[in-house]
Amino acid sequence: MRVCPVLLASFLGLSTIGLAQSAQQTYAPLKMSPPPGFAASRQLTRLSPSKHLSISVSLAYRDPAGIQRFVASVSDPSSPEYRHFISPAEVGKRFGPGPATLAKVEKYLTDSGIKIKLVGDNGLSILADATVAQAESAFKTQIYEYHSLSGYAPATGVLYSYAAIPSIPADIQPAVVEIGGLENFSHPQPASAVTPNQIQTLYDLAPMYSQGAQGQGRTIGISNWDGYRLANVPYEYSRFGLPSPPGGVGSNITVKTISGGAGSGTEQGEGDLDIQAILGVAPLCNLIIYDGGNSDLIGVLTQEANDNQADVISESYGWTLASSTKTAAHNLHLSMSAEGITYMAASGDSGTTLNYYYPDIEPEVLLVGGTTVTVDSSGHRVSETGWSGSGGGWKATTDAFNVLP
How far, in Å, CA of 251 to CA of 244, rounded? Predict the structure, then answer.
């Protein structure tokens, strides 16, 4: 593997080359690490300076202990704060980085030519657009193309990453958890049927469903990073006799595109499966598809927390993430818990035994494992057994938030 000297110094901590000083500002490296899979890769040429990047700047809580206490109390039936959820803006006001810190970070980004798209109401993240040249200049790093020795290649075919730990002005560095979007080594792994009628019978939903509880008045979100086709939805409604929403089939579906979206890309099955499974049991719900492109986990979580529209959000992917990215994601999940959003995720076919173990280690996410079911001639459950390894216990990591609930 060919590695530049700056990369060695920054990643291995062998010198202070990550500290750069100009006539006006002193820069300090962020507490980030190389992305997963970086070590098993070979550096190629510099990434085109004109290439567009969707970046995220994740900020830390001003009062991390306070938000954790609030999330615990708002979920505790014995607490006077039980179910007294708060808005994203209130999360930011009570626990976030604070307006002065946020303003400094925003100013630095705009002064660097980076275009801000969204500043989360909770103050935990800033989504922005930048060229490679702008990002390299702002974060004092270089971005190269790489060849993965393990065989991984993104859908675009171009694998890239920063070659030195990003640095920012020292006065705002303590408040920034990470800069996302400067690499695409991090990517989701699908955690992948039965018909709607089978699900309703198997899990005792049929009586409730037949009495008219079919999702109306509820908003369900899906976190997605896979290709899907909404043209399949009308066939599902007609094939299984599902009731149509007042505006017609599909009128209850909203797509929110983040970082270009993935929905129009190649279908791997997970996106379609998630959409159809939810509509099969809640055909009259309001369904929001948070469609993330370029494996933008932080961008999707930021939009979901900022919207604060969904009662429940479902995810069917597993991730291998750098420590800083896991912390940034955890902070957003804390905000969603404080807002009253239930976030659920599939634990995966092999559960926590896989390398793709986030969000399996996330205390603010409800993990659901897969099962094998034996049914009688009427479709009722006779026995049910968890898949080997699915939801396979709690994976011990060194992440500070990884505390068994």
Answer: 9
Mean pLDDT of 83-111: 97
Distance of alpha carbon 85 from the chain centroid: 22
Q: Do residues 298 and 328 make contact, with C-beta atoms less than 8 angstroms apart?
A: yes
Q: Classify residue 244 by its DSSP letter.
A: P
* DSSP-assigned letters across all residues of 13-81: T-SSTT--B-SS-BEEE-S--PPTT-TTEEEEEEPPTT-EEEEEEEE--SSHHHHHHHHHHHT-TTSTT
Say whether the peptide bond before residue 359 is cis (omega within 30 degrees of 0): yes
- Ramachandran area for residue 173 (φ above 0: left; ψ -120 to 50: alpha; else beta): alpha
Residue 221 CA, chain-centre distance (Å), reads 13
Q: Which of 22, 19, 21 is nearest to 10 (CA)?
A: 19
Kindly tell me the burial class for residue 78, based on how many C-beta atoms sit within 10 Å of its own C-beta (0-12, 13-18, 19 or more): exposed
Q: How many residues does the structure list for the chain?
A: 405
Tokens of 386: 């968890």
Asked if residue 5 has a cis previous peptide bond (ω within 30° of 0), the answer is no
Q: Which residues contact 236 (CB under 8 A, 6 or more apart)?
A: 196, 242, 276, 279, 280
Residue 201: closest CA among 377, 372, 385: 377
Q: What is the pLDDT of residues 221-244, one digit of tens each?
A: 999 999 999 999 999 999 999 999
Tell me phi and psi for residue 253, to 5 degrees.
-110, 130
| H or E element, residue 168 | strand 167-169
pTM above 0.85, yes or no: yes
Would you tell me how many other CB atoms lie within 10 Å of the CB of residue 136? 22
